[in-house]
Every structure is written in C-alpha cells, then in structure tokens.
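Example record

Each entry pairs one chain with its bound ligand, 2-acetamido-2-deoxy-beta-D-glucopyranose.
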Amino acid sequence: MSNKEEKPDEKQSSWKDFIYNPRTGEFIGRTASSWALIFLFYLVFYGCLAGMFSLTMWVMLQTLDDYTPKYRDRVANPGLVIRPKSMDIGFNRTIPQQYDRYVKHLESFLQQYNDTVQEKNELCMVGEYFNQDDAAEKKVCQFKRSLLRQCSGLADTTFGYAEGQPCVLVKMNRVIGLKPRGDPYINCTAKRETPLQMQYFPAEGRFDKMYFPYYGKKAHPNYVQPLVAVKLLLTKQDYNSELTIECKVEGSDLRNNDERDKFLGRVTFRVNVSE
Ligand SMILES: *[C@@H]1O[C@H](CO)[C@@H](O)[C@H](O)[C@H]1NC(C)=O
Ligand SMILES: *[C@@H]1O[C@H](CO)[C@@H](O)[C@H](O)[C@H]1NC(C)=O
Ligand SMILES: *[C@@H]1O[C@H](CO)[C@@H](O)[C@H](O)[C@H]1NC(C)=O
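Structure tokens for the complex follow.
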C-alpha cells in the first residue's frame, strides 16, 4: 500500500498506457480495427432493430381504416352531455353578468345549427334511418336551430335565462354506426317530491332516426348531432334553492342505467336560480 503511494509516476503511466498504448497501438485495451469492428457490429445491430420496428409499425398501420375505428365497444352506447357545459348552473336572473357566459356558450354552440348553414344540408325522411353505406361522400340531415323554438336563442336571445326559465340543450355523444331501436326521447325529472314543469323542443324531446347512423369524422364531415332543448319552467317557489335535474334517454334500446357509468344515456346537473 505504502509502496504504491511512493511511486505515483508508475501508476500514472500505466493509466496512460491503458488509454493509449503507443507500443501496441491499443486504445482502451483494443486496437483500432477491433474498435471499428465493434462499432460496425452495433451499427448493423441497431439498424436491424430500427428496421424491424418500422416494418411492424408500417404493417400495423396498413390494417387500420381511416374511416372507422378498428377497436370499439361491442355494444355502442352513447353518453349524454348538456350545453351550457356546466354541471352547476347558478345565476341571479336580474344580473345579466351572472348568466352571460351561459348565453354566450349556447349562442356559439348553435352557430353550426344556424338555419342558413343547415339549409345546405339534406331534408331527410322523418322517422327513417338515413342509410348511406354505399355513398362515398355522406350527406348530412338538416337540424335547424329554429326547431328549438323558445330555446333557439332567436326570438328570446337570452334562452330564457333573463326570465328565470333557462334552457338546457341535451345531446348524445357521437357513436359511429349507431342505430337506436325504438324512438329515443329525452325525459328530464327534478329529484324532489313535486314534479317540475318542463318544455321540450322538438316536441316530446325526440331524437329523430334520420340523424342515424353517423359515419365518422372523415366520411361524414359537417355532420351535426340532433339536439333536444329542455326549458325549465321554474316558478317563484323554485328560486333560491338548488334543484337536481336528471335527464335520461328513454324509449329505445340505448342504455341509461349503468351502475358504473353515470353518463351512459343520462346526465345529472344542478340548477340554482335566484331573483
Ligand atoms: C348565425 O346566425 C346569426 C344570426 O341569426 C349570425 O349573427 C351569425 O353570424 C350566424 N353564424 C354563422 C356561422 O352563419
Ligand atoms: C319520465 O320519467 C319519470 C320518472 O322516471 C316518469 O314518471 C315519467 O312517466 C317519464 N315520462 C315519460 C314521458 O316517459
Ligand atoms: C339578485 O339580484 C337582485 C338585484 O341586484 C338583488 O336584489 C337580490 O338580492 C339578488 N338575489 C340574491 C339571492 O342574491
């Protein structure tokens, strides 16, 4: 131990020899040609790995279809969502600033349903599925916002928020190829003893069959989902308290009572209007 410490030169020179040994021409224990071979080996090795990865990726992408998802649920069941996008709708009806964002949201959401925009779309047969499996460019059935009457934002530009009887739009999420059997409609109920009066647009809250099936984003551009507007006919006794409203799709084979998924075929939100 002490011996070595006395000869630091020798230790250093053996280190130097290890890095580069001028006598044998070795660099870190190997000759240049040996290093070149190792380098070449790894180059080929990783090149092959990258090649195999790209090849499998390419083969897999070939099996995918641009138009429909490859994997999806065996039974396609849509979720329900509401507009305005809020699970807690609360405002003082005498203070416009408090409901402005709901009104703005509804107004911008309904732009794509403008009558002028929708007039470019097809007038479809009421009550019939609009099958167009063979068509290259799928057509879209008209859904004009004027169908939503008092909830269209046309005559009443505040969607009932100023009068304290707000509208909420209910829509089903898009599911490619979905053809609901029966006559799906939206039924909303207030979770309390006494029922709450509501108005539905279009009549009876129906989703017409003509809006199904949907063929996917790429095949079916400009597709618009059918909507159901629900106007909550709140009265003086309903103000200043929180109401829980549940809307469900009924009258069809669409599921609305899944234990685990609270949004499958139904949606729950709270409303609190003050004056
Ligand atoms: C929709 O209609 C409203 C008024 O009816 C208009 O202000 C708005 O610009 C229209 N939007 C589109 C996208 O056509
Ligand atoms: C809506 O749901 C309520 C509660 O489940 C039920 O009593 C009522 O009959 C339903 N209305 C319609 C039109 O199905
Ligand atoms: C709602 O606004 C009005 C007018 O500003 C006010 O008098 C009333 O107290 C407000 N209601 C609540 C519950 O805050």
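The chain has two domains: 2-62, 80-274.
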